Each structure stands twice: as structure tokens, then as C-alpha cells.
Q: What sequence folds into this?
């Protein structure tokens, strides 16, 4: 069945460091791909999405490109801030519109 | 715009007891989801409604879990009887009726079964 694998956490970075969180997927067809973020004490919220191959989703300085050839959707940010500390979830869109999530990666950014 | 509302936020029960969770989706959202998030894992879909009809309940443990969405708006998820392994955060989400539509999540109900 469809599945998502993302890098294990936790990830600890210093402020202004470069961030990459790896995400690969297994799916039949070409699903939409998403990154959701969960800040401490808050609910899950959409960070960015891409709906077809080679699309780049971007938001709040984060980017991810839908790579069909490597079945990947890695999350990147050039310069992280303390406020980016959160848990990040990669997800793919199921055939009925539901989401299939990875296990999540906890990011801690130190000043 | 009001978000997805869930209650209660926290619940502690003993095993074999029953519990119910309530969700009020964003107004106008035809699709409603219940997800289970066990500590350290990503959310897993339990059931998906389109209006008041079930689209997918293949991962719902139907011997103990039930859900309904009367009138295509609010929804309740019930567990009876609860087991220790049901300890998790139960997330409700809603979206417009589109495969690429953004899902909006509530803050969840944290259930502890002791």
C-alpha cells in the first residue's frame, strides 16, 4: 500500500543553519504531496504542498520539490529560526483525499 | 473563520470503559476525517465521511470503535470498550470535497487509558 518514510529525529540546529528533512514515498499513480507542521501546543497545519511532478511548494521560507524519479519530497529551508521549532510531517494524498503521514521529525532550533 | 472544534481536550479512563469524542468541522466542509495519532507516530486515518456518508472506514476497529456524522455536520467517535493500546491523540480534520483540498485539523483529544 501507499506509504511515506521520513528521516528520524530529533534534529537539532543552530539558528540560521540550513535545514533538510528527507521524505520519500511509495504510491501507485501520482499523488499530491504535503508537508504539515505541528508547533508546540497547536494543531497540525499545512505548511506547503505540490500536486504534480516537478512542482515546488513553498511557504514561510520552506521549500519542497516533487521529484517523481526519486519519489521524494524533501523539505528545505536556508536559514532556520528558533520559531521554526516544531514537528514536521510529510504526507501523501490518498485516492479518496485522505492523508497518509510519515512518522514526523522533531526540529529544535537553538539560539 | 472558526477552525475545527474538538472536545474534550483531554480524557483519562480505565480500560473497558467507554468514551466519546466530538468534532465540529469548518462550516461548508463536506469531508470530515478522524485520525488516530499514537505517541511517536504520524496520524493514521480511522474513518472518512463525505457529508453524512462513509467513504473509508477500512482501518476502523469496528468491534470497539464507531463513528457517526448526523446531518453531515458534527461528528462523534466512540470507543467501547477501551483498551490500553487506544491511548493516543484523536484528531478531527475537515476539508472541501476535493482530492487536493487542504485539510484543516482540530487540536485533538488526548486519550489516556489506564
A:
Amino acid at each position: 500500500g501507499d506509504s511515506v518514510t521520513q528521516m528520524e529525529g530529533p534534529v537539532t540546529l543552530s539558528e540560521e543553519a540550513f535545514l533538510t528533512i528527507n521524505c520519500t514515498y511509495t504510491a501507485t499513480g501520482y499523488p499530491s504531496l504535503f508537508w504539515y507542521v505541528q508547533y508546540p501546543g497547536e494543531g497540525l497545519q499545512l505548511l506547503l504542498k505540490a500536486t504534480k511532478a516537478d512542482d515546488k511548494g513553498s511557504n514561510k521560507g520552506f521549500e519542497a520539490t516533487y521529484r517523481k524519479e526519486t519519489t521524494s519530497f524533501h523539505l528545505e529551508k536556508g536559514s532556520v529560526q528558533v520559531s521554526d521549532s516544531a514537528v514536521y510531517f510529510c504526507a501523501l494524498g490518498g485516492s479518496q483525499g485522505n492523508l497518509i503521514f510519515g512518522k514526523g521529525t522533531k526540529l529544535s532550533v537553538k539560539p | 473563520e472558526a477552525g475545527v472544534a474538538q472536545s474534550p481536550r483531554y480524557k483519562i479512563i480505565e480500560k473497558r470503559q467507554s468514551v466519546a469524542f466530538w468534532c465540529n468541522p469548518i462550516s461548508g466542509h463536506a469531508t470530515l476525517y478522524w485520525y488516530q495519532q499514537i505517541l511517536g507516530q504520524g496520524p493514521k486515518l480511522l474513518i472518512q465521511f463525505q457529508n453524512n456518508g462513509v467513504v473509508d472506514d477500512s482501518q476502523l476497529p469496528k468491534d470497539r470503535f464507531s463513528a457517526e456524522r448526523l446531518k453531515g455536520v458534527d461528528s462523534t467517535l466512540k470507543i467501547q470498550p477501551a483498551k490500553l493500546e487506544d491511548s493516543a491523540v484523536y484528531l478531527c480534520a475537515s476539508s472541501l470535497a476535493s482530492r487536493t483540498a487542504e485539510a484543516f485539523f482540530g487540536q485533538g483529544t488526548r486519550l489516556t487509558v489506564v
In short: Chain B touches chain A at residues 3-4, 31, 33, 35, 40-45, 48, 55-56, 91, 93, 95, 97-108 (CB under 8 Å).
